[in-house]
Amino acid sequence: MASYTAQSREQGRAPLPMAARRDTWWLAPAATFIVFTAFVVYTTFRVFENNYYKSPYKWGPYLSPMYSPLLPFHVVVNLPLIGPKMISPAVYILLFPLLFRLTCYYYRKAYYRSFVFDPPGCAVPEPNPERRMRYTGERVFPLIAQNFHRFALYIAVLFIFILGWDAIRSFMWPGPDGTTHFGMGVGSLVLTINVVLLALYTFGCHSWRHLIGGSLNCYSCDALSRTRYGLWVKFSFLNRRHALFAWLSLIWVALTDLYVRLAAMYPGFDVRFF
Fold it and tell me: Strand, helix or coil at 87?
C-alpha cells in the first residue's frame, strides 16, 4: 500500500479513495476518538463535581492533578434553574494543560483525523474535496491560535514542578505525635508515575527540542553550541516517542485523579506500605 501510494504520487495520480484501502487505517482515528472523548467527558464531570480531590491527610496526603495547585478562589454564580454554584478551581487550572495539549503538534494530527476528517488518514481524501481547496493552513483565525503552543510550553514545564512537589508530599505522612515522617502508599507511586509520564511527554515536545537546540547555524563552533546539540540529541529520544508518552500521560492523569477520588471517598481505600 505504501509503495503503491508513493508510486501514484510520483506519477501525479490522485490519492487512493477510502474504498481502495484494504488495511485497517481507520483503527487509529477511531481509537483516538473513543479515548479522547472519554477523557473529555470524565474531566468535565470531575471539574464540575468540585469534590473528592484531596484525600484525608490521615489516609494519604494525596492531591488530584486536576486540582493542583489548590487555588483560594471561591467564585459563586447564580445559574438558571440550578441556583448558586461555586466555580470549581479546576476550571482555572485545567485551562493551561489543556492549551498545551490541544496545540500539541502530535495531537493536532490525531484530532484533525479523528474529529474533522482533515484528512481521515494517509492517502485517504477528505469526505468533502472542496474543503481542501479552501484550506488556509494555520495562518488565519481560528487555527492560527495553534501557534500558542510554544508559549504554552513554559506553563506546562511549570506544572511539572508543581505536580512534582505533590508527588514528594505524597511521601510525607503524619506521625502519632503530629509531625510528618517518610511513608509510602499506593497513591504515592501513582502520583510519582503521573509526574514522570507528564515530564516525558512535555520534554519530548517539538517546541522544547527547538528551544534547547534550535536557531543554531553551527553545532560545533563553541562549547555552548556543542552542549545544546548534545541536549538536542538526547531529548530527540523522547521526541521519537512523543505519541506514546502523549497517550500514556493523558490516560494516567485520569487514572490518578480517579485513584485520589476513591481514596477521598473511602478512607482506608489506599494501601499503605510503611
Answer: coil
